[in-house]
Structures are given as structure tokens and as C-alpha cells.
Amino acid sequence: MTHPYWVAFSSIVVKEVRRFLRIWPQTLLPPAITMVLYFVIFGNLIGSRIGEMGGFDYMQFIVPGLIMMTVITNAYGNVSSSFFSNKFQRSLEELMVAPVPNWVILSGFVIGGVARGLACGIIVMLLSLWFSKLVVSHIFVTISVILLTAIVFSIAGLINAIFATKFDDVTIVPTFILTPLTYLGGVFYSVSLLPEFWQWVSKLNPILYMVNTFRYGIIGVSDIPVATAYAMLGLFVIVLGSWAMYLLNTGRGLRT
Amino acid sequence: MANALEISSLVKVYDNGFTALKGIDLTVQEGDFFALLGPNGAGKSTSLGIVSSLVNKTSGDVRVNGYDLVNQREQVKRSLGVVPQEFNFNAFEKVFDIIVQQAGYYGLNRKQAAVKAEEYLKKLDLWSKKDTQARMLSGGMKRRLMIARALVHEPKILILDEPTAGVDIEIRRSMWTFLTELNRQGTTIILTTHYLEEAESLCRNLAIIGKGEIIAQGPTKELLKDKDRSTFVADFSQSPESLPESFSQFDAQLTGDGSVEFHIKRGESLNQVFALFDQYNLPILSMRPKTNRLEELFVDLTENQPETGSKV
Ligand SMILES: Nc1ncnc2c1ncn2[C@@H]1O[C@H](COP(=O)(O)OP(=O)(O)OP(=O)(O)O)[C@@H](O)[C@H]1O
Ligand SMILES: [Mg+2]
Question: Rounded to 5 degrees, what angle do the CA atoms B247, B253, B258 make?
Fold first, then answer.
């Protein structure tokens, strides 16, 4: 017989995946449209005037960053809005009364977020093929870094939802923290172009490491050591994961 | 035989400092049909919420089916089916999916879950709505959906917080028949309701809670036996203008619509009243208890409860 936890886990994942598929115009379509605009405007129109960046034509340089940006936003957004609406509609109680350990709940929602992040990432990657050719230099790095990043931001989205008390609260972090960090995380430029001080500041931005490692996986160039990025991602998974578990165990924002 | 539910010295202080439960003790035997009654805000949902892991307790002990709530939470959860007071399903999901989903949380794979979902949706007369989004159900259907969902893993104990609120008489009756049958087959049923006549006729044991304290607990029949008086209302073909002095022994009063309300103390016989009415040539056309007996007991107990009274 299949283990009950496994069944519970897959139930959560199936529910999460069905949710974002059901509302695809809000989940899968927007990143496709936004990114095509980026490709057209930055890649084709402006990119042709910029010339090379990091030794590649500008379009090829920004594609990995834009895929990463998509994965981050969508993984985070999926878990934060789904978990919050479960909490808001009280349907999270269905899970709270059931014999499902918190680590299964956490993993289920996180894998749901990863699935949405990857689905959007793949859509954007396929769309990018219209504008530039895609070569993958290091397949293992490409896949592992995108998975780890999706996991980190899914967990972060869940933590956000736990603290959120109204719908606005799940948009604050993406607007005021995630988007700026992504734009400043070397999606559109190589940090080597920056003055030394700003290079140093940029290196405090975790998203820089993720974007560069992913770019390294695709086109083989990175502004930072790839090993550092893995160490950082590992640390984030552990720290955020433990924090999320602590919050679920104490019932923060869920149980009065 | 383990008790289905044992609560001792359970205290709940909410984050805002409000003490909703002041150390309650409650025992429900296995196989019982048990009602937890009390006015709004008495602490019924709080108690049931703690038992079903939806509310954190402040102190005290809870055992469900012999398992400790804190140390054996998983076994506790497996033993319980929970129908909360407020609707708590995803309104955009379809009825069938909600049930299958819930079964999955208890470890039933999709195939087993689909079989159980069909069984319980049929039993609760919701099968024709299986592909309807939950938000499009009527209030009574939503309640039944929550009952089906709570039963899909076939728990030993079913907890229902006001299952009949907002349900019409016909459906309420069929719901009671359903629950009675379920209970007959061995499921312990613990519920709250504000319809006291239902509790009186169906629940073997009950507890009355007021202001976070248990003020009475025991077999329904015993509790009612102890009640010292009952109120009746009599109607006459020709309403009396006034009542003779001798009626005061029954605390009788003329009401606005021309009927007479009187009280019978424990040990007194109704025949005495009839004799008196006869004597004054007042033929009774019809007579009924003013409220049901449980309702009177309930009102007596809860209205006369001191602000921070000691436990009975
Ligand atoms: N989250 C909360 N924070 C603070 N106080 C609360 C909270 N939930 C309930 N209470 C208070 O606790 C008391 C008991 O509430 P509870 O919901 O248990 O009552 P109840 O007996 O179920 O009432 P009803 O018949 O209206 O459902 C009430 O005074 C209520 O205001
Ligand atoms: Mg209540």
C-alpha cells in the first residue's frame, strides 16, 4: 500500500497544479506576454544597439536572466497567493484537521510553486527560441539552480502568506523587495560594468547569484563563483525551510 | 472501552486576553449521541475547535478515542471527522473534488477516494451536484457537503458544530435520520445546536456550557427529571376576563391573546389544574407546553448563571 503521507503529498500537489492550470489566464499567460515584450523591446530593438554584453549578443545575455525572473516571481506568487487564499477561505482547515504532518504540507505547497515556476520558465524559454537560439552549456547546473531557486522562493512565498492578514500583504514583498532585487540582480547587465563600490553592493543581493549561475548553465559565463551560489541556495533552503516549519508548528496566523 | 472524548480542566485564553474556557471537564462515551449546548459565545466552538486541532489550547488535557491530543495528534485526527460551524471549503472547487481531495489527506488514493466520495455524496443527497462548484450550492447543501467530507475517511467520532443551522425542516429531519443511523452503526456523534427540541429527542447525553463553564452535564432524561417545573399554555373557546385568586398556586397568568399560562411543579399533577378550570367552568380547548422541557432547563440554567460562578 502506498504510504498515506505520499498520498496526502500528491493530493496537495495535484490540487496546487490544477489551481494554476484552471486560472491560466492569471498564471501562465501574463509571464508569456511580459517576456515577449522584453524580448522584442530590450532584445531586438534596443539590444541591437547595445551590442555585446559579457561576450554575447544582448539578447542571448538577457534570456537566462528573464527566465530566472519568471521562475522567481511565479514560484513565489503561486505559493503566497494559494496558501493565503486557503487561509482566507478557511479551506486550510481541511488540512489542519487531517493527519498530515506539517512537513508534508510545506513540501506539497512548495512543489506546487516549483511546478508553476518551471511551467512559466519553460513557456518563456520556448518563446525565447523565436528571438535567439538556445544553447545549454552545463545542463546539470541549469536544472539544479532553477530547481533550488524555485524551492527557495516557494518557501519564501509560504512564509509571506503565513504572516499576511489581507490580500495586499502578499503583493508587498514582490513589489518592494523581489522586483527591485531582480532588476538589480544582473538580469539586464553584467555587474562588471558597475563601479567597484556598486559591484560590492550588488554582491549582497542573493538574486544576483541565482541569475548568474543560471546564465552560467546556459551560456557559460558568470560574474560570480558558481560554488558560492550553491552554498547560498543551500543555506536559504535550510534557513527558510526551518522558519516555515517553525511557523507551521506553532500555528502562527493559522490557529488562534 | 475508551471514552470517545475526555476533556479535563481545559482552559482557553485568546490572544486578546479573553478567557473563553475556564477549565471545563467533559466526558463523552464511545457510541454516544452527545449534544453540547449553550448560548452564543458560551465556548462551544472553542471547545470543539481545540479537539479538532483548529484552536490551540492554553492548558488542560484532551484525549480522543484514548489518544492524547498533544502527543498523539495524528491518531486523534484519524479518529475524528470534523464539520465546523463556518463553511471552510474552497468555494471554486467542485463538490466531488472537495471530497476526493479530503480523502487524499487521510491517505486514500484517488480510486478508493472516488468510491467513498460517491457513497457519501449519495447518502447526503448531493450526488446530482457532484460537478457543481461549491459556491453555487445552497446553504443546506453546503452543510451536507461538509458532513460528507468529514465522513469520507470513516472516522469513529463525528464532531458537528451547528450542522442544522440554516437548514430547512425537511432536510433537517433527514439529516437527523442520517445521523441517528450513523450512530446506530457505531459512530460517536458530538454536536452543538441551538434547536433544543432536536437535542432533547435525539441526544442521549448532553452538557450545557455557559460563559466558558460547564453548568450541567448528564443523560438527557436525568437532567430533565431534575427540572422543578414546566410551563403550559391553555386556550379556551371563551377567554376568561380575569383569573380567580386560587389559580395563583399554579402561578397562572392571562396572556395578551386570551390564553392562560401556568406552571406545574415537580410532583404536582395536571389533573389539579384541570379540576380548577372545571370548577370555574372554563373548558380548555387545547393545551401545549410553552417551550420544550429542555429549553426551559436551558434558560433556567444559563440565565441564572452568576457572572463568574463556581462549577456545578
Ligand atoms: N479568535 C478569537 N479571539 C478572541 N476571542 C474569541 C475568538 N474566537 C472566539 N472568541 C470569543 O470566545 C467566546 C466563545 O466563542 P465560541 O465561538 O466558542 O462560542 P460558541 O459557544 O460557539 O457560540 P455560537 O453559538 O455563537 O457559535 C466568545 O466570547 C467569542 O467572542
Ligand atoms: Mg460556535
Answer: 115
> In the listed set B224, B244, B268, which residue is the last one of a domain according to the structure?
B224
B56 lines ligand 1 (CB under 6 A): no
Contacts of B73 in chain A (CB under 8 A): 99
Size of interface A-B (CB pairs under 8 A): 78
**Residue of B24, B37, B46 to mutate, ligand 1, most atoms within 8 A of C-beta:** B46
B74 shares contact with chain A (CB less than 8 Å): yes
A255, part of any domain: no
pTM of the predicted model, to two decimals? 0.88
In 3D space, the residue among A95, A72, A71 whose CA is nearest the CA of residue A83 turns out to be A95
**Boundaries of domain holding A227:** 4-250
* Interval A154-211: pLDDT, tens: 999 999 999 999 999 999 999 999 999 998 998 888 888 889 998 888 889 999 999 9
> What are the φ/ψ torsions at residue B76 (nearest 5 degrees)?
-60, -50
Q: Is B45 in the pocket of ligand 1 (CB under 6 A)?
A: yes
Q: Which three cell numbers stand for residue B222?
A: 436525568
| Residue A87 in domain | yes
DSSP conformation class of B133: B
C-alpha cell at A175: 513589489
Nearest beta carbon to residue A256 from set B56, B78, B107 = B56
pLDDT 10s digits, B107-138? 999 999 999 999 999 999 999 999 999 999 99
Number of independent structural domains in chain B: 2
Residue A19, C-beta contacts closer than 8 angstroms, at least 6 positions apart: A82, A112
Ligand nearest the Cα atom of residue B22 = 1
Per DSSP, A44 falls in state: I
Give the Cα separation of B108 and B117 in Å (integer). 11
- Residue B174 and residue B150 in one domain: yes
Mean pLDDT by runs of 10 across the 312 residues of chain B is 91 96 96 95 96 96 96 96 95 95 95 96 95 94 96 97 89 91 96 87 92 92 75 83 83 84 82 86 84 75 68 39
Atom of ligand 1 at shortest range from CA of B44: 21
Residue of chain A with shortest Cα separation from B87: A90
Q: Which residue of A has its CA nearest to B18?
A: A256
A109-135 tens-digit pLDDT = 999 999 999 999 999 999 999 888 888
Contacts of A205 (CB under 8 A, 6+ apart): A181, A184, A185
ipTM rounded to 2 decimals: 0.89
Q: Which residue's entry shows cell 544597439?
A: A49
Q: What is residue A221's predicted lDDT score, i.e. its pLDDT?
A: 85
In this structure, the residue with its CA closest to atom 6 of ligand 1 is B14
